[in-house]
Write a structure and sequence with these properties.
This protein is an alpha/beta fold. It has two domains: 5-75, no CATH class; 94-185, Hexapeptide repeat proteins (UDP N-Acetylglucosamine Acyltransferase, domain 1), CATH 2.160.10. 28% of the residues lie in helices and 20% in strands. It is built from three helices and 14 strands. It has helices at residues 5-19, 31-48, 54-74; strands spanning 76-77, 88-89, 95-97, 102-103, 107-109, 113-116, 128-129, 133-135, 140-142, 146-147, 151-153, 158-159, 168-171, 176-179. The protein has a six-stranded mixed beta sheet. The protein has a five-stranded parallel beta sheet with strand order 1-3-6-9-12. The chain is globular and about 50 Å long. The N and C termini lie close together (9 Å).
Length: 196
């Protein structure tokens, strides 16, 4: 969670490395990198604003408004404070994440991904994804499940049970282990560059 300016810079640097971007400032047409910078800045202002501070309230409203507009452009529906450093969204397209979800560092999401709790009565308990997770296009992750570190979720997989051991590839509907291939070749992990 981003609590200081140093945290903000560390998260932004990890996200930049995960996205394979060379400059710290995004190109005007790089909508995903623009969205990720707005996402992290909005998290910073929500997490650091003091109660009763009118300037903090204005900053939260301003950054929320900018993030909302960019989210509509990109097709992202992602609440704040869900991801560790190193978030990487492959490109614009529908990505829906429920607020009950928790995701570790170095997560790469492709288009048409949905992650959330199983439908039912509250309290809704969402999935917990570890570090270094790659989620293929069209994948669905549902329920009170735990996915371990270095996991690859194949395209169009439906993950509705836990794989806490990680270090494997899962695919299919419902998802099952298909190989021992971890996520190392699918993501750029910032292990030594931006520790959480």
């Amino acid at each position: 969670m981003i609590r200081t300016r140093e945290d903000l810079h560390r998260y932004l640097e990890a996200d930049r490395i995960g996205l394979r971007r060379t400059g710290s400032r995004p190109h005007p047409y790089d909508e995903v990198w623009i969205w990720q910078r707005l996402y992290r800045r909005t998290e910073f202002h929500f997490n650091t604003a003091r109660k009763g501070d009118p300037f903090g309230w204005i900053a939260r409203k301003y950054w929320s408004w900018r993030l909302h507009r960019q989210s509509i452009r990109c097709g992202f529906e992602i609440p704040l404070n869900l991801f560790g450093p190193g978030l990487s969204l492959s490109h614009r397209g529908t990505i829906i994440i429920h607020p009950a979800t928790r995701v570790g560092a170095n997560c790469r999401l492709n288009v048409n991904v949905t992650i959330g709790p199983r439908p039912g009565p509250p309290p809704e308990i969402g999935p917990v994804l570890g570090d270094n997770i790659y989620v293929g296009a069209g994948a669905r992750v549902f329920g009170d499940i735990v996915l371990g570190d270095n996991l690859v979720i194949g395209a169009n997989a439906v993950v509705n049970r836990s794989f806490p051991e990680g270090h494997m590839t899962v695919a299919g509907a419902p998802a099952r282990k298909v190989s021992d291939t971890p996520s190392d070749q699918f993501i750029i992990a910032t292990r030594n560059k931006a520790k959480p």
